[in-house]
Automatic annotation (TrEMBL):
<keyword id="KW-0408">Iron</keyword>
<dbReference type="InterPro" id="IPR009050">
    <property type="entry name" value="Globin-like_sf"/>
</dbReference>
<keyword id="KW-0349">Heme</keyword>
<keyword id="KW-0813">Transport</keyword>
<comment type="similarity">
    <text>Belongs to the truncated hemoglobin family. Group II subfamily.</text>
</comment>
<dbReference type="InterPro" id="IPR001486">
    <property type="entry name" value="Hemoglobin_trunc"/>
</dbReference>
<protein>
    <submittedName>
        <fullName>Group II truncated hemoglobin</fullName>
    </submittedName>
</protein>
<dbReference type="InterPro" id="IPR012292">
    <property type="entry name" value="Globin/Proto"/>
</dbReference>
<dbReference type="Pfam" id="PF01152">
    <property type="entry name" value="Bac_globin"/>
</dbReference>
<keyword id="KW-0479">Metal-binding</keyword>
<dbReference type="InterPro" id="IPR044203">
    <property type="entry name" value="GlbO/GLB3-like"/>
</dbReference>
Length: 130
């Protein structure tokens, strides 16, 4: 018998749209409420609705789900999209602090989550421009 997770995308393993939405909402709730994330929160608009939607669409695409992000925005070019914002080690660490807590609270433990987390850390570090 084959392991269904061996052929499933991370998007599917994490619960599809519902799972990714839960992750993204928890992430932004933490960013909005945790004083330790005040610096990264200040880089976002007052309303986080647009940010929530973009991250949801991006992560859905990145994890093997619908390509809505690319259809709306073109190639992700994440570093270029983040260049207007001053992102140093502190901002990266604040972002990762919120994302790590959201990941640990909302995504199922296991190899897929571990690989996702490694990729997220690399992506967050790549966003540094200061």
């Amino acid at each position: 018998m084959s392991d269904p997770q061996a052929t499933a995308t991370a998007y599917q393993v994490f619960g599809g749209a519902e799972g990714i939405r839960t992750l993204v909402d928890r992430f932004y709730d933490l960013m909005d409420l945790d004083e330790a994330a005040a610096g990264i929160r200040a880089l976002h608009p007052q309303s986080l609705d647009g940010s929530r939607q973009k991250l949801f669409e991006y992560l859905s695409y990145w994890l093997g789900g619908p390509e809505t992000y690319v259809e709306k925005n073109g190639h992700p070019r994440m570093r270029a999209r983040h260049m207007p914002f001053a992102i140093g080690e502190s901002e990266r660490d604040q972002w990762l602090h919120c994302m790590q807590q959201a990941v640990s609270e909302t995504l199922p433990a296991g190899e897929v989550r571990d690989k996702f987390w490694e990729a997220v850390v690399g992506l967050a570090d790549h966003m540094r421009n200061r």
